[in-house]
Amino acid sequence: MQIASMHFKERAHDNMGNAQLQANLQKIKGKFVAKRRESLVELDDFEATREAARAIRQRALDNLDVWLTMFERNAVARGATVLWAETPADVNRHVLDIARRHGVGKIIKSKSMVSEESALDRAIEAAGVEVVETDLGEYILQINDYEPPSHIIGPALHKSKEEVSELFARVHGTAKKMEINELCLEARQMLRKHYLAAEMGISGGNFFVAETGSVVLVTNEGNATLTTTLPDVHVAISGIEKIVPTLEDIATLMRVLPRSATGQSISNYVDLLTGVRGEGEFHGARHMYFILVDAGRSAVLGSEVSEALRCIRCGACMNHCPVYQNIGGHSYGWVYPGPIGSILTPSYIGLEKALDLPQASTLCNQCGVVCPVKIPLPDLLRKLREQQFARRLRPWSERAGLHLWAWLALRPRLFGASTRIGVRMLGWLGGRDRIIHRLPLGGGWTDGRDMPAPAGRTFRDLYAARRAGGAKR
Amino acid sequence: MRVGFFVTCLVDLMRPAIGFAAIKLLEAGGAEVFVPPTQTCCGQPGYNAGDRDGAIALARKLVGEFESCDYLVAPSGSCTGMIKTHYADLFRDDPPLLGRAEALAGRTWEIADFLVNVLRLKVVPGTFAGTVTYHDSCAGLREMGVKEQPRALLARMPGVRLTEMAECETCCGFGGTFSIKYGEISTRLADNKCEHIAASGADAVVLGDLGCMLNIEGRLRRRGDRRTRVLHIAELLAGDSA
After folding, report:
1. Cα(A64)–Cα(A268) distance, rounded to whole angstroms?
2. What is the pLDDT of residues A339-356, one digit of tens each?
3. CA proximity to A192, closest of A215, A141, A226
4. Per-residue confidence at B241, pLDDT binned at 50, 70, 90?
5. How does pLDDT run across A225-276, given as a tens digit for each residue?
6. Does the N-terminal or the C-terminal CB of chain A have fewer CB atoms within 10 Å?
């Protein structure tokens, strides 16, 4: 996917000024938060389940090589082929090789965020093969000239019903539908013929199970089931970190994933796909491929932010993030938005290409407290800020300001003297109303807010005076 | 009981009255208050901006200044959260200091929490007649577990009616240097907060952190609201808010 993370500020500005988008964001925000909260009540002990989920994901990462090898062995034993993709380009190369090998002219695809990293759809089309997205959100984006996704579980969440309605009428050449179920029906009718004609289906993978060599798909529309079982060839693509040791682990993770994501006790469909179609079976793909993608993940594994790899892609961090809720997913400029994206994006595409992302958080930790696998998101953002600072990627003025502050604060007498002057000047700027409307060099603050002026004397001085006065008495 | 009072740099510079109000409350609760004269900053601005070395130096200084006290109390969830939850990370490679920092962290309290759970303050000196709404600061709530304590104290003031605003636990958008680096986003978050405050109909918004205070008051005034008062919980409780 085209990287636009360097334009974060401009995009956030535009998105905050986009009335339609703002209305859409407001509408979905409350739904996600309330539904998650309501669904957690069903669990006897959410915190204990959350801790178990964290431990499962961490155990997988701690011995990632062992589980991946076990997965490969078991998947191959069931007739599947396991391919490794070191880079995003390798993903596209593998997919096109498979398509060529099986003489594929049409591919159907269920949702895969990993495939967005390498812009797989465009690569497929460039090779002269047709590809059709079947997840409703992804389909909407595809027919809108590959608009980028704005959310990891609802890629088209930024669009209103009315916008989709207009898009469908324009692209499908049909009469405009106004009801959501009419729009869904229209999409189903459009997609049905593709399901039946496609020779190959591509899916993502919510989890890979090491002990069975299976892939788990968590969906709501049923499209993944069709995509992975109707065509003769199924290709499942996901990151190497998505592995878990056992099927029992899946049972635990499934208790927190749908609840954290959409507030459902369980998603409408959970597909567990193991091996190719066997003798006498009349379901399933005859050829099954797994593409396990590194694309920066193994480097993250050995880094200070490795805990980010525990992510199970529920989207709760972005759904609860006050910054995301106001600027929308497109502002972040790559595949993964919100708090987790602000860690993954710089880690995968380079810290210097996404300078704003680790900074664009108030570190309020609303993300951290809702994360079902307990990723300490603010701590990890802070680690990336430390790396930016150490690598001198932040502006000179910012670094100088921080050095000056620490230098002064380590020298109490000088700190006292300089803050005495500073506070007096600010007090004077505040005038009679004791409100500063315009701060020199402080436009970041005063463009949108006043600054309540200080009293004019520091606590330090007032306290010293009070003590001296007390001693005299 | 010797309580080391950490004024915090923002109270020192911007609202010294809050410091005096806090001392009054601690003394009303029977504490002997000691204000280390060389104290400055806990190191949080540097820590959150990636200046780890600067933060370590300031954290080391603070530990030395306060470790002789029975408790460290500050009128801020953010600064106490820094000491209690983040100093351990700063000293992870320095076991002797890590031990000292962890010992101090165990004795570090946010003011409202300390008044309720350690001093068990029964009688609140201040009086206030009107409706207030409480803004939960992020670090106070999510790092220090401050939620019921300030509300319990407000309930001990007969003239105070507490009316909860919507999304009282949502960030006001301050975020330290975030408020300047991403002023527009920060302002939008503050604006949402102001909407909720206005909708609550409260005469005053009460809170426990200076950062939120400057941000919320700054946005309220820019919006033209000159009526809604923005008070630190210590000022209100001490009766120094007139």
Report:
1. 30
2. 999 999 999 999 999 999
3. A226
4. low
5. 999 999 999 999 999 999 999 999 999 999 999 999 999 999 999 999 999 9
6. C
User: In A, residues 226-245, which contact B (CB 8 Å cutoff)?
Assistant: none
- H helix or E strand, kind and range, residue A157: none
Burial of residue A211 (number of CB atoms within 10 Å: 0-12, 13-18, 19+): middle
- CA A238 remoteness from chain centre: 14
A435 Cβ under 8 Å from any chain B Cβ? yes
User: How far apart are alpha carbons B29 and A47 in whole angstroms?
Assistant: 36
Structure tokens at A11: 């995009």
CA neighbor of A248 nearest in space, from A284, A293, A275, A212: A212
In this structure, how many other beta carbons lie within 10 angstroms of the beta carbon of residue B69? 20
The phi, psi pair for A361, rounded to 5°, reads: -145, 145
Which residues, other chains included, contact B167 with Cβ-Cβ below 8 Å and sequence gap of 6+? B192, B193, B196
DSSP annotation string for A427-459: HHHHTTTTEES--TT-HHHHTT--EEPP-SS-H
Which residues of chain A have a CB within 8 Å of the CB of B188?
16, 326
Q: What is the DSSP string of A11-66?
A: HHHHHHT-HHHHHHHHHHHHHHHHHHHHHHTTSS-HHHHHHHHHHHHHHHHHTHHH
Q: Considering only CB atoms, which chain A residues are within 8 Å of B173?
A: 322, 362
Which two three-digit tokens encode residue B136?
């939960």
Which residues of A, range 400-429, sit inside 8 Å of B by Cβ?
402-403, 405-406, 408-410, 412, 415, 419, 422-423
The pTM of this model reads 0.96
A200 three-state secondary structure:
strand
CB-based contacts of A279, cutoff 8 Å, min separation 6: none
Strand order in A214-219's β-sheet? A243-244, A207-209, A214-219, A269-274
Closest CA to A307 of A246, A364, A381, A360: A381
Mean pLDDT of chain B: 97
Say which residues have a Cβ less than 8 Å from residue B242's Cβ, sequence separation at least 6.
Answer: none
Q: How far is CA A249 from CA A1, A220, A252, A271, B139, in A?
A: 32, 21, 5, 15, 33
What does the block give as tokens for A215?
């892939």
A462 to chain B, minimum CA–CA distance in Å?
8
Per-residue pLDDT of A316-339, as tens digits, reads: 999 999 999 999 999 999 999 999
Write the residue in A360, A379, A459 that is nearest to B182 by C-beta. A360
Q: Which residues of A31-42 are buried (b: 16+ CB within 10 A; e: fewer)?
A: ebbebbeebbee
Specify burial of residue A3 (Cβ count, 10 A radius: 0-12, 13-18, 19+).
middle
Cα angle, residue B70 at apex, residues B64 and B71 outer, rounded to 5°: 80
- The alpha carbon of A22 is separated from its chain's Cα centroid by a whole number of angstroms, namely 20
Asked whether the beta carbons of residue B13 and residue A415 sit closer than 8 angstroms, the reply is no
Alpha-carbon distance A277 to A266, whole Å?
27
- Type of residue found at A456: G
The pair of structure tokens assigned to B59 is: 């954290």
With a cut of 60, say whether residue A472 has pLDDT above it.
no
Q: Are B144 and B81 in contact (CB under 8 A)?
A: yes
Report ipTM (2 d.p.).
0.96
